[in-house]
Design a protein that fits this description.
- This protein is of the alpha/beta class.
- The protein has three domains: 21-242, P-loop containing nucleotide triphosphate hydrolases (Rossmann fold), CATH 3.40.50; 274-482, Leucine Aminopeptidase, subunit E, domain 1 (3-Layer(aba) Sandwich); 560-759, 2-Layer Sandwich (HIT family, subunit A), CATH 3.30.428.10.
- It contains 28 helices and 22 strands.
- It has a seven-stranded mixed β-sheet with strand order 1-10-9-8-11-13-12, sandwiched between helices.
- α13 (293-308) crosses α14 (326-337) and α13 packs parallel to α19.
- The chain starts with a strand and ends in a 9-residue tail after the last strand.
- The chain binds a DNA duplex (10 and 10 nucleotides) through residues 510, 560-563, 565-566, 593-594, 655-657, 673, 675-678, 728-730.
- InterPro entries: Histidine_triad_CS, HIT-like, HIT-like_sf, Macro_dom, Macro_dom-like, P-loop_NTPase, Znf-C2HE.
- Residues 221-251, 498-547 are annotated as: Disordered.
- Residues 332-523 form the Macro domain.
- Residues 566-674 form the HIT domain.
Amino acid sequence: MEMEIDDTPKPKGEETKGKPIVVILVGAPGSGKSTFCEQVMASSTRPWVRICQDTIGNGKSGTKSQCLKSAASALNDGKSVFIDRCNLDREQRAEFVKLGNPNVDVHAIVLDLPAKLCISRSVKRTGHEGNLQGGKAAAVVNRMLQKKEFPKLSEGFTRITFCQNESDVQAAHNTYSALGPLDTLPNGSFGQKNPDAKIQLGIMRFLKKVEVPANTVSDANSIQSSVSHKNTEEKEPSYKGHDNISSFSGNASKELKEGENLAVCSSGSHASLNNTPTLAFPSISTSDFQFNLEKASDIIVEVVEEYVNKLGSARLVLVDVSHKSKILSLVKTKAAQKNIELNKFFTFVGDITKLYSEGGLRCNVIANAANWRLKPGGGGVNAAIFNAAGPALEVATKEQAQSLHPGKAVVVPLPSTSPLFSREGVTHVIHVLGPNMNQHRPNFLNNDYIKGCQILREAYTSLFEGFASIIRTQGKLAKVSNENLDSNPSGAQEVIEGANTKHSPNNDQKSKREHEHDYDRSKKCKGSQDEIGADIPESKIGKVDKNNDKIDGSMTKAWGSWAQALHKIAMHPQTHKDVVLEISDDVVVLNDLYPKARRHLLVLARSEGLDRLSDVSKDHLQLLKTMHNVGLKWVEKFLQEDASLIFRLGYHSVPSMRQLHLHVISQDFDSKNLKNKKHWNSFNTAFFLDSVDVLEEVSSHGKATLRDDESLLSMELRCHRCRSAHPNIPRLKSHISNCQAPFPPSLLQNSRLVLAPCNAGIDP
DNA sequence: GTTCTAGAAC
DNA sequence: GTTCTAGAAC
């Protein structure tokens, strides 16, 4: 693999894999160094040795030279090593850093957790190996923190990871646990956020409660000033110019020449592997879909030119695996003619799933030339990406969408469990579907290049828009996560990805039961209709239905007696004047009896026999539009009362209540009636079908694609804005009451969210 | 859809 | 001990 832009010869065959690592933990007592090592060692497939000065002396306190000796011997055996001692200043670390050489990487993991937390852990600790207990702990921790010097790449580290809260620690744990014997991690400094405010004022009050030498307390101010003095040095970590950095990955010198400051990839944990946002994308439609290369290259350059300046410092990279790629050379020539800046757009030869590990090119986002089903398989880029990303991508994709129209793109956040995330630093995959000129593939355009060009242009536009929305989201997320640090020092519940992999036996059994239940129910429904005949006129169904109500009862039973309330209201709204807000010939509007948000109303269809979305056909398109418009009218009214509200309009794939009803619901989900997983997931997974999408599908396919998979309703609880996972409903609710992150890109598209006109230009 | 509650999880 | 979930009944 090589970079096309500077024709660096490729140093292939260089043995960069399978290197042992020395990981130097840096952190005060109580910061969780030993726990970190133990947890990684428990789940890692790489051979690790933990060198702990507290235990190495076999009862007596150990020495530094003992640690160095056993570290060296473990490295000789090809094992990776954790140096589990405080290592808080440069001098303490120096000799361990010297263990590194071209075949041994030296990493630092900085556990920079709040001093208050370290102290309280140390104080509580009873069986700690270093025998640092009780009130003395506070004094010791605090004295050590005064000497704290953050590690720098210039000391000789190849990689430094800063952890400032529990979720950072979790992310680092995931990264190191996932490291197989042959894997290497990207070089650089990651995760340093707010280098100021090292010592929280609160700990001084805390310290007064424990036994502390007088000088420690009275030194409060000098601690602060000395620390912040150090930080000013650290605000501009030197990256460029150090030998170990310019040899970074051997073949990526161009990366550095471009002036990229890898050390400034701080931000939140979501962005911890990023620096300059970069989208790598394959040429769309020109391979299997046989789109004309000349025309395709014109369109690529045209759309790139339009976006390249809208995207700030972000970069776009057209990737092809072949050296002889015609499309790359066409695009390269045309881009040069248009004087598109090379540091913002260039072409690259390589495997899009190994851009960083094999090509040294950091791309936080990659595009996939997807198929319309968004499924793995086929060949080419799609197969490669799904293979490399593992099953996590398939699951995450399903969460966003189930199919794709030509010209459209869908942004999928990649779970940190995916190897593409941990190895390549890819945080998002954007699936794109282009126009097809191959008669053996779906949606064949039969050489209609007018339409084809239009769709291809739309495809690249959707792709770059998706990329732009990721940049916006990450920028804001980083800001929000910093803000949260103050208000929520525990932070532990913030992103628990990876901790939720226990989907197996219980859930399987349960979903099986649910499916059986579902099957029974639909059988009953279908059965009673089938007996009557599938295509009898609606009026007759109405009649039979009435009979069911009064005589047979099987229909009633299929829905459950409690499920009839909306049907009754739709049929006889005038007798429910107490709850009904609006009646027309087509619809009835009412507040949901148990609103799941500040504003939550239902727009009922009045047609008899239209029980749910699966009953909808093209004949109902006008009715669906009416329902949507009536919903929008109410939204407008609500927004006049409270412009901060944001609304979503949509249907449940499988409703619990009979009679087709559109939910109009504000996105605060601030309601005591929202009590369980099913409530949350029915509005915040693919189970909830946006009205705009339903309209589009019914108008193009005559029916809506339902997500009647009830496992959606038992999915892990994720914030609808920042997508963080939460262990239970109360914790989720407390999170969403504060989360100001912008909504995911999928919701920002196609007017799925409706907000006040004055907010329309701002990302919600 | 909700309510109630046993028992799992913390 | 309390909190929270999830299944049964309605």
